[in-house]
């Protein structure tokens, strides 16, 4: 005989008892934990609170893994994975993200960002900002949301005027005579104030070290020779000629666009000073850029070809070859 204590009933055998427990509302059994609850509410609370169960109380569904439960929450419910909170509807989730200090949330776009800086960049993008800054380059009708975006456009070489980073640097050198945003000790000038050649490096197949193309200057690896040469022609290895004008900051940058991004971010507060605002406003007018490719030609580069032999890696000094002026 088999006996049920809770119901005070006898059964002929254990199979009959198990069938009784399965069918009776007085028995609510968690098979995984082998616990019998007297009510369904008790069993449900167990599913919700126990770390052994991945359970959705809204759908009365159990999952094998927590990852499956979270995926279900994302697909079927209004769920905040960062805070592990479930909301009744999308509006509740939206209000939570908008008000919570744990979130970097754009309420207009209903997008959550990984950091405050990412959110700030998003708010300064063309999604939220008008393209109020026109490119001063000849025959260029492009407009951008910030000064830094204008200068980055010019530095990239993508402007129809023919401007590039070298031309921008030369323009700033001639314009910023009081060295408000430039460091005179690092400007591209030689003896007597004459222009000094800016070095542009390039690599050939000998930069292969056996498993990657290696930059001799900083030892960064690249999977292709083209990628290495893109790295070498970037501002990475150029002089940091630009400097934040705030005495308590004085952070240095290799490009004008990087300095402008720093100023626009308001990290150090230098943008509040009138002299800085006036300098940037006048600088970005760039009236002399109407024929930038002619006035500021890029032929002042000194080309250096880095030929690195893998069998003698690394060489004691860089064997710069083919010293030519383009």
Automatic annotation (TrEMBL):
Residue span, C2H2-type domain: 104-128
GO cellular component terms attached to this protein's record: nucleus
GO molecular function, one term: zinc ion binding
A Pfam family assignment: zf-met
InterPro entries: Znf_C2H2_jaz, Znf_C2H2_sf, Znf_C2H2_type
Keywords from the UniProt entry: Metal-binding, Repeat, Zinc, Zinc-finger
Superkingdom of origin organism: Eukaryota
Gene3D superfamilies per the UniProt record, alphabetical: Classic Zinc Finger (3.30.160.60)
Protein name from the UniProt record: C2H2-type domain-containing protein
Organism: Armillaria tabescens (Ringless honey mushroom)
